[in-house]
Design goal:
This protein is mostly helical and 269 residues long. It is built from five helices and four strands, in the order αααββαββα. Strands 2-1-4-3 form a four-stranded mixed sheet.
Length: 269
């Protein structure tokens, strides 16, 4: 997850205003972490569901192949049984006393031979059906083995990622508590009121006479007051706390000392 750059605030800004801006940064990061922590189990559930679906398909193919082989064995057994019947009937034919008895034996032998041909035809059909089933089962077994390895790796990565995110969230919660202690009750209450009313975003930067959150134009006189940064003011349209943080010129930044970014970074409002 890409981390948003921290806002470099100008000097002279009201301490409470600086603190609520930092609070917003912390809350944004906490929200990002919570989304990731929540999303990881869902992702794991999805890939496990897909894996289970593939396992069930493999089980169905295995069952179909087993049924195919079972029926082939039955057909082979039927052929053997009919062959034995034919052998007995041929022996009995030798003892036939009349033409009627002889023809009767012939009819029974022909019936047995028809049953054998039917069984042989069915075996050929089953062999034709079993070839793609056998290939599908072998391919699915190999694919499933690879997929299980990938799923196990993703689950382990998700557990590790969740642990990292949770440690980061715990550290941010501690930082947040410290910031809240430093903020005046009135300043914190105004921030919380705006944040809860505006889906987690209670602070917005004012740029070029507009609120960057709701994009409404700010009255000129009010904008000048916001630019001074000596009090907490809220957008007249969306009620978010406004701040103005002009870009730092390169020469001013160099004169101000090392360690500061040569260009002002604005955080997304």
């Amino acid at each position: 997850m890409r981390r948003k750059p921290r806002v470099t605030l100008r000097s002279g800004m009201l301490p409470d205003l600086k603190l609520v801006i930092r609070l917003q940064e912390v809350d944004n990061r906490l929200a990002d972490l919570q989304r990731e922590i929540t999303a990881l189990p869902k992702h794991i559930a999805e890939i496990e569901k897909k894996l289970i679906s593939h396992e069930r398909k493999l089980e169905a193919d295995r069952a179909a192949l087993a049924a195919n082989q079972k029926e082939r064995k039955k057909c082979e057994g039927d052929i053997q049984t009919q062959d034995q019947k034919i052998s007995k009937l041929k022996e009995q034919m030798l003892d036939a006393k009349t033409n009627e008895q002889y023809r009767a034996f012939q009819n029974e032998i022909e019936f047995c031979q028809k049953e054998i041909r039917k069984a042989e035809d069915r075996i050929l059909e089953l062999m034709t059906e079993s070839e793609p089933l056998d290939r599908a089962v072998k391919a699915a077994e190999a694919s499933l083995k690879t997929e299980k390895t990938q799923v196990d790796a993703e689950k382990q990565e998700a557990r590790e990622r969740t642990a990292v995110d949770q440690r980061a969230a715990d550290a941010l919660q501690k930082e947040r508590a410290e910031i809240v202690k430093e903020t005046t009750p009135a300043g914190y209450q105004r921030y919380e009121r705006a944040r809860k009313a505006r889906r987690g975003v209670g602070v917005a930067e004012a740029v070029d006479g507009r609120c960057t959150a709701c994009h409404m134009v700010i009255r000129l006189q009010f904008y000048q007051e916001v630019k001074r940064g000596d009090q907490i003011l809220v957008c007249e349209s969306c009620q978010r706390i406004l701040y103005h943080n002009p870009p730092v010129a390169v020469e001013d930044d160099l004169a101000g000392g090392a360690g500061e970014s040569p260009a002002h970074q604005r955080s997304p409002a």
